[in-house]
Amino acid sequence: MTHKNLLSVAEEFGSPVYIYNAEKIISQYQRLTNAFKVDELRIHYAVKALSNISILKLLNSLGCGLDTVSIQEVKLGLKAGVDPSKIIYTPNGVALEEIEQAVELGVQINIDNLSVLEQFGSKHPKTPVCIRINPHVMAGGNSKISVGHIDSKFGISIHQMPHLLRIVENTGMHINGIHMHTGSDILDIGVFLYASEILFEAALNFKELEFIDFGSGFKVPYRPGDIETDIEELGLQLTEKFENFCKEYGRELALAFEPGKYLVSDAGKFLAKVNVIKQTTSTVFAGIDSGFNHLIRPMFYGSHHEITNISNPKAKDRFYSVVGYICETDTFGNNRRISEIREGDILSFSNAGAYCFSMASNFNSRYRPAEVLWYEGKAHLIRERETFDDLTRHQIEVDLTSSLGKLVEKN
Q1: pLDDT of 148-163, one tens digit each?
Q2: Domain Orn/DAP/Arg decarboxylase 2 N-terminal, which positions (predicted)?
Q3: What is the CATH number of the domain that holds 133?
């Protein structure tokens, strides 16, 4: 998408606005599927990254399945037309009743808790279950997105394998998959290869496996020239290890991954208008018509989003701190070198496809923005901007006048 394309979207749909490039999503999916030369490759897109139904439909049209973490995400996937057999459901800390709802919808269940596993196996021994293992591998670009280490709430510890096997034996459960996810923004493919050895060893304990799921966590570039996970090299090395394991196991299994950010991060742009330029004694602030209610990742994770002034891209570069309109510390970038910003200019934030709109809120009673899909050279509105009616739709006004009057009289 060119600057002209982006500006046309901001003009047509207003700002702030999210826009996603379908061609980039498609090319990322094809790059991933081309990297792993196995008999059966299963890609399950992590819905939590970006859950708009139009995005799910696009990925479904490519043959992609879904990785879901809530019953609501399961239902979104089904509404988007995804076959339940291509949806894996991996909750954490949910009630058994929610897992049973997922069973009724026909999706693949993935359990990461010994207690839940025993309860589920006792009630549903014939339902195929995948087990999420915690390999105790520290990986990820930030402590908040590293989920395979020893102190993580996710997964069943590899050291609890004897207990796990007793539960499976006592309940007669059918274990058809084994799974891990060590974290996000993993650069070193050695982490995957090391964790794969742990997962392969654990898999030998189960005789009826259909697939092995390595989660995801592939790092994407956030800055020009930034390094990223070498998918092609990982594909070569992990494919070889996987094929050797299948020979040892005695039959071919499916190899599965659950990419989210990898597929949609770089496809997304977030556009916001500059409301004010504020010069202080030490800083020039560019205040935009948005805040961490729309894009929380910089404040939450300390994540980096490249910021470009698409209204004035050829002007002389100056240094700005780009901030939002939320009544809290609300900074998108400190001391960034950006082409001269004027009030009314449109700024474009890169890598806005993953964990951006999906984490947006109505903090400060602000409306969540519109979403647009750029497909075949045209802008398609895929979510309307919220209105005041949306803010109040589920609120119930209670008449407290008489009670307050009595309280005033009493005092």
Answers
A1: 445 667 889 999 999 9
A2: 23-265
A3: 3.20.20.10
